[in-house]
Every structure is written in C-alpha cells, then in structure tokens.
Amino acid sequence: xxxxxxxxxxxxxxxxxxxxxxxxxxxxxxxxxxxxxxxxxxxxxxxxxxxxxxxxxxxxxxxxxxxxxxxxxxxxxxxxxxxxxxxxxxxxxxxxxxxxxxxxxxxxxxxxxxxxxxxxxxxxxxxxxxxxxxxxxxxxxxxxxxxxxxxxxxxxxxxxxxxxxxxxxxxxxxxxxxxxxxxxxxxxxxxxxxxxxxxxxxxxxxxxxxxxxxxxxxxxxxxxxxxxxxxxxxxxxxxxxxxxxxxxxxxxxxxxxxxxxxxxxxxxxxxxxxxxxxxxxxxxxxxxxxxxxx
Length: 294
Known about the structure:
By secondary structure, the protein is an all-alpha fold. The protein folds into three domains: 1-93, Tetratricopeptide repeat domain (Serine Threonine Protein Phosphatase 5, Tetratricopeptide repeat, Alpha Horseshoe); 95-148, no CATH class; 157-242, no CATH class. The protein has helices at 12-17, 23-38, 44-57, 62-74, 78-92, 98-107, 111-118, 128-144, 148-155, 170-182, 186-199, 207-210, 226-235, 238-241. α6 (98-107) packs antiparallel against α7. The protein is globular, with a radius of gyration of 22 Å. The model is unreliable at 219-264, 270-277 and 281-294 (pLDDT under 50).
C-alpha cells in the first residue's frame, strides 16, 4: 500500500468501530477502505476490489460492510449492495441505509420488497433526510408497478413545500417532477424541475443539465426568509386559485513488475474468513482521500 494512504483519513467514528479488530488488521482494513473511496470515480473496479478485500478481512465490523454496500450500490451492483447493507444493518442498527437497500431491491426488479422495507419497524428509526430519501424510493416503487397517482401522493409530504432543517429538498422536487411528467402533467413537471435547478447550488441533482443550463458551481445555500417560502408555495397553487381541484394523486494501469493477483472471495454475511494471499493493488495514490472516506 503506497505511503500516501495511512488509513487515518477515515472519520473518527469509523476508526473507533475498527477497534473491534486487532491493530494490524484494523490498519489494513482502514487503508483499503480509504483506497476504495479514493478510487471510486476514476477506477470503479479497483475501488470495488479494495472494498471487497476490506470486508473479507474485517467482515464482522459494521462500517466495513456498510462501506462495501454503499460502493456496490453506487456502482449498480444491487445484489451485493442488498447483501452487504442488510448485514451492516443487523450489526450496527443504523437505519439510514434503508433507502439504499430499498432502491437496490427496485434495481433487482422487486419493488414490492422496497414497499415492505418502508413499512418495517426499522424505518421508524431513520433521520429526516433518510426518511425523505425512502419516500422517494417508495414513490418510485409504486411507479414501477404502474400506480403513478399513488406515487405522486407519496411525495406530497410537508417537505415538498417546506424546508427541512433549513434546507429545501431539491432531490424531492426532481423526483416529483419526474412523476408529474409520467402522469402527462408536463407544465407542472417543468415548473418543479425549474425550481430545483434554480435552488440546487450544490449539484445534488441533474435539474440544470436537463434544462440545458451549465452545471452550477457549489456555493452556500441562500438563506431565504419565511415570506419567500410562502411565495414558493403560492407559485404552485395557481390551479387551486383558479378554482381547479388539485390532483391527488483502458484497463487499469499497473506499476512495472506488478502482476494481477487473484480476487479475494466474497465475505460471508456474519464472520471473517481466512485472509487471502494477496491484497489488491492501488492504481494511483490519491492526493487526499479524507473528504470521501468514512
């Protein structure tokens, strides 16, 4: 492992969880977790290799399984994501992974399982942001079954028109716009998408790109006053004001002399196994992985 990665780039909580391993193993796992996040954008395959290796040798630690599951989810490997995130949930009890599990079930063509997850006891333990994300997934699951009106009603929650913890929920707006489009309510869909593009200064959505605008550079969110919130609500109630009824409804480079090592076996759901003979090679040494590492 190159000297540029020490493993100490992980956040304090993750490092604390790794104390359940012996010191040498914890250090190795931490380095591979940092490498996995650092390589995610430029070399997803290598990133997955590092995450898998970390889970292989530190598989009884929740944050390790969670890391592998999150990276698998973002790479579109939904079967691995479901397995790893469910295991992480059992180990840690952290419910905020539920939206990713549910969305992975949708990705596997099982929207009914996503709906079951939303109705489970675990869902009651989520924070506000995760709960909103789960509602977006649930709405998508209803849409997968062809029930667009129920999908729309699922997203017609207070967070659609009010800030949550001082922030507008731009991802919720885009999801709502997508469903309006599917319901042939094109003008309304464009207005919600435009509102998202105007408000999303952090690049959380593709709203600007879809409207043909430049991608916004990240900037602090404007501190709007309450009267501006009222204007947002009023802007989307024109139909009601007019007397209309609202609807409810190159292959990886290697250092000279490096050889391709065999891929480690998949981790089991509950225990560590024998360590593999070789660790995956880093393709590049990141300048800094602290921001993306957990």
